[in-house]
Amino acid sequence: MRDHGITHVLAKNAGGSAARAKLDAARALRLPVIMAARPALPGAALDSVDAVMGWLGHSALHWTVSMR
User: Fold this and answer.
1) What is the Cα–Cα distance from 66 to 68, expressed in whole angstroms?
2) Distance CA 43, CA 53 (A)
3) Is 31 exposed, middle or buried (0-12, 13-18, 19+ CB in 10 A)?
4) In terms of Cα–Cα distance, which of 53, 52, 51, 8 is closest to 29?
5) Strand 33-36 vs strand 9-12: parallel, antiparallel, or unpaired?
């Protein structure tokens, strides 16, 4: 990290151990670490086929409008 002039570390908080070495190195070098939070999961729970079909129709409409 020093060889590349890194002054800060940005990592996503994925909940795994893949970034552990990077975070340990940043700590050893006393570099600031910025953790990007994982987005919240959708809260909708659907209990029928009709509800799912309605949700799918709403989502398709939302994406169609958003992409324009």
Assistant:
1) 6
2) 17
3) middle
4) 8
5) parallel
Q: How many Å apart are CA 55 and CA 62, to the nearest integer?
A: 10
- pTM to 2 decimals? 0.51
Contacts of 2 (CB under 8 A, 6+ apart): 29
Tens digits of per-residue pLDDT, 40-59? 776 678 888 888 888 777 65
Tell me, letter by letter, the H, E, C secondary structure of the chain: CCCCCCCCEEEECCCCCCCHHHHHHHHHCCCCEEEECCCCCCCCCCCCHHHHHHHHHHHHHHHHHHHC
Write the pLDDT tens digit of every residue in 7-33: 999 988 777 787 788 899 999 999 999
